[in-house]
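Contributing new records

If you add data, match the layout below exactly. Sequence lines come first and carry their own label; structure lines follow with theirs. Keep one chain per record. Anything else will be rejected by the validation script.
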Amino acid sequence: MTNLFDSAGPGKDAPRPLADRLRPQKLADVVGQDHLVGPGGVITKMLAAGRIPSIILWGPPGTGKTTVARLLAGETGLAFMQISAIFSGVADLKKVFEQARIRREQGRGTLLFVDEIHRFNKSQQDSFLPYAEDGTIILVGATTENPSFELNGALLSRARVLVLNRLDNDAMQALIRRAEMFERRPLPADPAAREAMTGMADGDGRYLLNMLEAVFAAVPEDGEALNPEALARTLQKRMPLYDKAADGHYNLISALHKSVRGSDPDAALYYLARMLTAGEDPLFIVRRVVRMAIEDVGLADPEAVHQALAAKEAYDFLGSPEGELAIAQAVVYVATAPKSNAVYNGYKTATERARQTGSLMPPKIILNAPTKLMKAQEYGAGYRYDHDQPDAFSGQNYFPDVLGREKYYDPVERGFEREVKRRLDYWAKLRKERGG
């Protein structure tokens, strides 16, 4: 008799995770990404036009990047090849390119899916270019990081970046319904426990399906539905203390934010600990700490955002629970930093003004004149190069002529912004003296 451990080997009958068994069979079945695969989606239009360019799929974990690439290959008749930048080197790339070349000579194209493509270095990224340009491969790269920062310009210029959204509540509920249909029974969890599971997944469909699989396996068909406390014991994880409407989730992050804004590191640490012990995703928290550092500290202490971003890197490197201390350090730093929302207010004011004023032309004095016609129209005429001026400051007007000079950013007399204010006051004095 074959037991579970025997069957877990590489054979065709080996058990597969629920997330793998529930993979969509066509692009239209991918949840949460209607802007890409819905009736009017970008990928849908590409398929209708019969032309698929190289693509970079950018989105959080568990949003369907691998699934979209695999289904795209199926719907275009291309051979699907998959590699990971984490485990592949130059020799692997050469082998893949050679296989694609041979396949092309035989009349079939190749869709090469590269997971974590941002982990390849510049020269490795460049190696894709000739094969993508001559049609040997259709490159589909997946990344959780901002392609603008992690991929080189040459590769980005030859690929279309498509953004996958973190799965919203409707998409998560759709996954739960699919799992229930597959298991042929309702999820054995009460409404509060279901809500807790979607909160824990935080938009990651794969993580949600793994939890669903554990729950279905733990509770027999005639078993009692789990409440949040029983769910926590089943998954061996503390549940977020959130109610059905997710008020607890937002109440705690709001309390953390306001404690930081109010320069109370002790209260901030308390709410941080509340969220972490409740099972909140640490990366959700650190994303909000980055926002706090920008919105509430700003240039009063420019180091605050660096501390917050360093906490994210440290958590990625160390994992939990060691990495959580890095988040605590960032929270304390931002809470104890001098506060200013001057940049935040200035940006809001400037954005509203931009909407009001439309497409006003910048003054000709600061526009380049690459053609004779533009020179004849006095583009760039009279521009004074600031570095050649006394104090490296010309005092010219850079606002549209019909608008006149306006003020949006008003730094406070705290922290580093005290120095910024001193500089701005000095430049205002020079501008007035020089008629700017």
